[in-house]
Amino acid sequence: MAKNSNLENAKRAKKDEFYTQMDDIAQELKHYREHFKGRTVLCNCDDPYESNFFKYFALNFNALGLKKLVATCYDGSPITGNELPLIFDVSEEEPRRIAYKVEITEVTDVNGDGAINLADVAYLLQNDKNVLSRLNGNGDFRSDECVELLKEADIVCTNPPFSLFREYVALLMKYGKKFLILGNQNNVTYAEIFPLIMENRLWLGYKSGDMAFRVPANSEPRETRYWQDETGQKWRSFGNICWFTNLDIPKRHEKLDLWKHFTPEEYPRYDNYDAIEVGKVSDIPDDYFGVMGVPVTFLEKYNPDQFEIEGITKTWFGAANKKYGDQIQVNKNGTKSKVSKLNDGAVLKMSSPPPGKTYYVVSDEIFIQTFPRILIRRRK
Ligand SMILES: C[S@@+](CC[C@H](N)C(=O)[O-])C[C@H]1O[C@@H](n2cnc3c(N)ncnc32)[C@H](O)[C@@H]1O
């Protein structure tokens, strides 16, 4: 790979360094235990010396009945502190890891006390059945040798680089892999991801919302959602993290309780799509069987036996039935600007300007735009 593109990858990878906490992994994984028996698990964005995904599976290797655990790490990642100390390449601007893999097939309880202490990867490697070896390439999950490991794996579980989420999921789909991965809720609206949700080939796991991640020592301070703890460890948090999976979970079969009744006054119809607006998931009426636009958080409650998904307003996939011409956006403070964004979402027609809200004027008619909406329909 050319030096420039190596450097570019290293820069991008730096922005992707968010290390998942053990507790977040354990809290989610406890719902999926039965899927792992006799399986080979691959963590393909994970330096075993610092990834809690690797540590979780190593610690629970016997309890889950795993066949094999493989972790690979990427040489574009900057060193953050805990990993192999031998791998500095002095010609680089910043020290980086070498790419290597660890393959675990046996975790023994050496002192027979039933507990396995895996604080140290070196401990695992004392067993001849477990191997640490250098990769030939840079450990990119898309590289041939990593794809070979992917092909051999039954379940892939990691927090992949945020910036490569689309490509990451595309590869999992291409090889028909089972997976449980962390991502950002915004990813659901991507043109590459949403159709998979619609086709029930991917869904959300249990936890959605706030999550904090360790970040490398050289991370820049930020005004919000950034702090340094008493040990000096830097942290970042996000309010919209969720798990994406194609492993079946009981939550997916829980029925959402519906108690509201439909009235045309309470549930207005969109101006650019034949559906009603439902502003809160808890307000989905129990007696309406046409299409409804609901907040994206609906996906946290989605049971495919109860609802089917018809589309999404933000991406539309050509479904909107009207195109707005010249639009004037009138902001809350009265300032006006020419825009075209009314076409990017579900639109409600208003009889007068809504107080305290941004609205749009098109040929003397007044409109507001909703937040992105998932278009759903009740199954009878
Ligand atoms: C969001 S972090 C998560 C790290 C670890 N999986 C965890 O959860 O703690 C994503 C990791 O993927 C690495 N990475 C970035 N680009 C990659 C690529 N093309 N192939 C494999 N790993 C990559 C980053 O260096 C980073 O360590």
Question: How is this structure best described in words?
Answer:
The structure is a single chain. This protein is of the alpha+beta class. The protein has two domains: 248 residues; 127 residues, no CATH class. 16% of the residues lie in helices and 26% in strands. It is built from eight helices and 18 strands. The radius of gyration is 24 Å and the shape is elongated. About 3% of the residues have low confidence. S-adenosylmethionine binds next to helix 3.
Name the overall outline: elongated
Structural class: alpha+beta
**Biggest β-sheet strands, sense, barrel:** 9 strands, mixed
Count of discrete domains: 2
Strand content: 25-35%
Unreliable parts? 81-90
Share in helix: 10-25%
The SSE string, one letter per element, is HHEHHEEHEHEHEHEEEEEEEEEEEE
Number of strands: 18
The overall pLDDT, averaged over residues, is 89
What's the gyration radius in Å? 24 Å
DSSP helix count? 8
Measured distance between first and last alpha carbons: 55 Å
Ligands and ions found:
S-adenosylmethionine
List keywords for this structure.
380 residues; alpha+beta; five-stranded antiparallel sheet; binds S-adenosylmethionine
Briefly characterize the structure.
The chain has eight helices and 18 strands.
Architecture blueprint of SSEs:
Layout: H1 3-15, H2 22-29, E1 40-43, H3 52-59, H4 61-64, E2 68-72, E3 100-104, H5 121-125, E4 131-134, H6 144-152, E5 155-158, H7 165-174, E6 178-184, H8 194-198, E7 203-215, E8 226-228, E9 234-245, E10 276-277, E11 291-295, E12 307-312, E13 327-330, E14 336-339, E15 347-350, E16 359-362, E17 365-369, E18 373-378
Parallel strand pairs: 1-2, 1-5, 5-6, 10-11
Antiparallel strand pairs: 2-3, 3-4, 6-9, 7-9, 8-9, 11-18, 12-18, 13-14, 13-16, 15-17, 16-17
The protein binds S-adenosylmethionine.
